[in-house]
Design goal:
- The chain is 31% helix and 21% strand.
- With 352 residues, the chain is an alpha+beta fold.
Length: 352
Amino acid sequence: MEHRVYSLPKKRMGELFGLISSSRQLFLPMEKGGQFQFSRVDEHTDLEGVSLDRLLTAGSAKELFFPQTQQIAAFRRRGKEIELTSAETLTSAFVAFGVRACDARSLEVLDRAFLGTPRDTMYEEKRSKGTVVTLACNEPEETCFCSVFSIDAASPKGDVETWIAGDTLYWRPGSEKGAELTQELDALLDPCSEEEPEGLIQLKQQIRSIIGKLPLGRLSLEQFRPEALQELFDDPAWQKLSEPCIGCGTCTFVCPTCQCFDIRDFDTGEGVQRFRCWDSCMYSDFTTMAHGNPRTSQVERFRQRFMHKLVYYPANHDGLYSCAGCGRCVSKCPNSMNMVKVMKTLGGAQHV
């Protein structure tokens, strides 16, 4: 497949969004209630007023593929019989535009969790119908550390990669779905004569230069390897690290790679609706079974979360870490206890 670069004047992005939304659902980072979230474009959206300058949304693009709450079935009793209705509805084709490199990596982590054996059909359908258009990070924030996990914010991976350099949007399809979307936008996008325009080359260099100077960019992953599992598990530092943790679950709910969920039934009075809802390994009742809870203390729950991200998951998935370095946990934890502090304490850093 040809990975040709196309361009569009930035001032015409409203037209681009309008054309996309005419044939597919379109989700853009938009401000709602003082926070930026991926929201669906509708007839009331001011496309000319959409800004992609906000680096990270409060919640990640994960919510478009693995919703926080999702009805999966409904039950109704009729005499001695129970009527079961699947609540799954067919997902319409949609585009998630403005996904950052860290969130794009998180979808790779989720794919391994939900598209293995057995396959999660609800997630699978959303992934098959969704086209991910990524956007390079022109000005990475100080809380970002995606480069630690070999993520290149200057060249985000997706069905389509985009960059905004000055007054120009650059566009490059990266998959068959991306090529299909590009073909639909043929009337707007102009193919570039160069394989990679000079403006795009300079922007990438600028982004990588900024990333190289970020304060968290030198965190070390050297200690977090499978053969060090027992040593890390037994490290007494977990006790002190976990003491500030109040088990609120904020870190798990803003994390783009967390995938734990619970199944809950809601009695409507006329029947029962069954939902899949996000859950958190930081909660005291997480994985509670008939015989009790396998992790009864907060230090055990705290250790489980970070060991899974940095040791268990990569050991079972070809070295792929279940952290994308987005920095959301760094900025959102009410007690400033986050992935970075764990990595610095247990894994060390080239600088502190």
